[in-house]
Amino acid sequence: PLVGxxxxxxxxxxxxxxxxxxxxxxxxxxxRLAVQDIDLxxxxxxxxxxxxxxxxxxxxxxxxxxxxxxxxxxxxxxxGTDLRHLAQAEIWRRIAYLSQRSQIFAGTIRDNLLxxxxxxxxxxxxxAIEAAGLTGWIATLPRGxxxxxxxxxxxxxxxxxxxxxxxxxxxxxxxxxxxDEPTEGLDRDTEAQIIDALAxxxxxxxxxxxxxxxxxxxxADSAVLMAAGRIAVQGVPADxxxxxxxxxxxxxxxxxxxxxWTPDALDNIGPLQATDGRFKGHGxxxxxxxxxxx
Length: 294
Prior knowledge:
alpha/beta, single chain, seven-stranded mixed sheet, disordered C terminus
C-alpha cells in the first residue's frame, strides 16, 4: 500500500483546520515534481478554491490532503497533527470526498445516496438532494428514490450520476469537504443552481474545491491559482482571476504573486479557461482568453 496506519496513532485532533507546509511530491523516483513547495493553510470552516488548468497539480494536492499519498517533503496536518500520525479511519471520518469519477452501485437511488450515511434522516436526505440539483429529476420518476439505477448506474446519465455522487458526499455531513470538479459535465444553469445550494451546505465546513471553472470560485473565501505544480497566485477569488485575466475590470488590490512568479510569467502556465466556461485540452489558450467571472 502507498500509505499505512502508524503503530501508535495520535489522539484525534480537536480542530478540523488543514495545513500544507513546504509540501512536494513526485509520483516516480527521479520523475518531475507533481507539486512543489506548497504552503496552504485552511482555518476551520474556511473554503478555498484550488484553480488551474489540467496537469497543474490540483488533484495531487487533493490526494495529499486525503492521505492517499504521503509527501516526499514537507508536512500535511489536520488540526495541527501530521496526517502520518493519525489513523486513516480518523481522517476519513472527518472528510467527505467527491472524486472526478462518479461511482454508482447496483441498487436504488436511495441505496446509493445512503452509502456512508446509513442513519441519515429524511430532512438530511432532502437537503442533499436539493444541493445536488436532483429534486426535479427524482420527482419525475414513478418510484422516486426507490428507482433502480442498474449495475454501475447504467440507467442514469453521466450528469445524473455526477449529481448523485455529489448528494452522497453532502449527505455524509462531514466537517471537511474535498470536492474535485463538483459541477463537471453540467450545463451552466444547473451549475448555477448547484453552486447556490453548495454555498449553504458548505457554510461552516472546511472546504477544498478543485476546479477549472471560474463560476465555482464564488463558493470560496480564498483561492489559489496552480501552475506547473506550484501556487502561482493566492488571494480572494476575484484577485486570482484578475491575475489570470488582465482584460477583466480590476476592482481589487493587486493579488499576491508567489515568489518566482511575475504577471508576465502567468502567460506560460498552459491552457486556461476558455470563454465557454471550460478548459480546452488542445492549444495554448492564454490568460487574456479567460472568460468573465460572473
